Amino acid sequence: MYTLPGEYYHSEEIYGRELEQIFYQRWQLACREEQVAEPGDFLTVPVGDESIIVTRTRNRDIRAHFNVCRHRGTQICAEDEGHFTNDVIQCPYHAWQYDLDGALKGAPLMRDVPGFDKKDYSLHAAHVHLWGGFVFINLADSPAPFEEEMGALIGRFGDWRLPELRIAHHLPYRLKCNWKLIIQNYQECYHCPGVHPLLSDWTPFQNAVHDCLEGAVIGGFMTLTKKRGSMTMDGEAAAPPVCNVSGDDLQRVHYYSVFPNLLLTPHPDYVLYHLIRPVSVDEITSDCYFLLHPNILNDADRMQRFQSAVEFWDMTNKQDWAVCEQMQLGTRSRRFKRGRYAPQEDILYALDREVLKALGELD
Ligand code: FES
Ligand SMILES: [Fe+2]
């Protein structure tokens, strides 16, 4: 099994095709439902060169609109998040107004323009699908059904009751590497003994099991050595088990990459996830979130204990980011063509194939 050639991390041309054929075509994570909790709340979500407004309507539906005015194409929302006053999305340029569903409601002095009908000038919609309290969007005209693309997610992690969980902490990062390197890094623990000594104590890399090796959702689990342990600074649980988690799952940390931009890591006692967004061919943002049940969130003593999980993952993330940035630099060398995967990295080969398939370079 050979790795991808170095150009897949550096070529503007390949990156452009990845945006077109992956990020503008596939289902991907936008945010959590709670981040647009009330009607009129909004987030602007960058997707490559696009910007998508995610908002909640009066009917409490979640909608996604391209952040582009139908008058002359001005970007409407400049803020990352906020609230639309009086349910009006207003362009800052000539004040065209849209409702939360995206319908054009006000267009000054356009009434007498021959053949102009407001109905023809709604904001362009992106598709929305909700799963596990996550808001997924798709920018394609006619996307494949979510259930088809993300089939392996359906029915999984039910015991964590993901829709009920809430964001307990957010660690934002920006790093200089190609988006695929971070996903590769997440999916193998061949690097763990050297890069993550503490993580390796709690979950030795020989314990990794890959149970899903095909398609958009791939991953497996690692077994915790400490009874009722977890990924924290002292290896003890950070909180009681999440909702209905029981049996083998009390001793497992699951690692799933949900192609192309979600890394989902249910622990026995909390859920961790990373939202990966490419900024350019060699730069990404990685937003690391922790989810807990509101019962824990509202308990100050338990939240203090929970900091041990945040500290653990901030340390571990930074260890990963350092090697990913070094790999970005090294793969630029004219001497690097492609490398060989170790048996523990079989899952990366599956990931590479998913990329190549999306680019039309594989049957
Ligand atoms: S460009 Fe938006 S109102 Fe003119
Ligand atoms: Fe790592």
Q: Overview of this structure, please?
A:
- The chain has 363 residues and is an alpha+beta fold.
- It has two domains: 28-143, Rieske [2Fe-2S] iron-sulphur domain (Rieske Iron-sulfur Protein, 3-layer Sandwich); 153-358, Naphthalene 1,2-dioxygenase Alpha Subunit, Chain A, domain 1 (Alpha-Beta Complex), CATH 3.90.380.10.
- It has eight helices and 17 strands.
- The chain has helices spanning 12-23, 146-149, 179-187, 192-195, 197-202, 294-297, 300-330, 346-358, and strands at 28-32, 41-47, 50-56, 62-66, 81-83, 89-90, 97-98, 104-106, 125-131, 134-138, 166-175, 209-212, 217-223, 252-258, 262-266, 271-280, 283-292.
- Strands 1-10-9-4-3-2-5 form a seven-stranded antiparallel β-sheet, with no helix packed on it.
- Strand 7 and strand 8 (104-106) form a beta hairpin.
- Helix 3 packs across helix 7 (300-330).
- The chain is globular.
- The structure holds FE2/S2 (inorganic) cluster and fe (ii) ion.
- FE2/S2 (inorganic) cluster (FES) binds next to loops.
Q: So what's the oligomer here?
A: single chain
SSE pattern, N- to C-terminal: HEEEEEEEEEEHEHHHEEEEEEHHH
CATH architecture of the largest domain: Alpha-Beta Complex
Calculate the terminal CA-CA distance, rounded to whole Å: 17 Å
Fold-level CATH name of the largest domain: Naphthalene 1,2-dioxygenase Alpha Subunit, Chain A, domain 1
Poorly predicted runs are none
SSE blueprint:
Blueprint lengths: L11 H12 L4 E5 L8 E7 L2 E7 L5 E5 L14 E3 L5 E2 L6 E2 L5 E3 L18 E7 L2 E5 L7 H4 L16 E10 L3 H9 L4 H4 L1 H6 L6 E4 L4 E7 L28 E7 L3 E5 L4 E10 L2 E10 L1 H4 L2 H31 L15 H13 L5
Antiparallel strand pairs: 1-10, 2-3, 2-5, 3-4, 4-9, 6-7, 7-8, 9-10, 11-17, 12-13, 13-14, 14-15, 15-16, 16-17
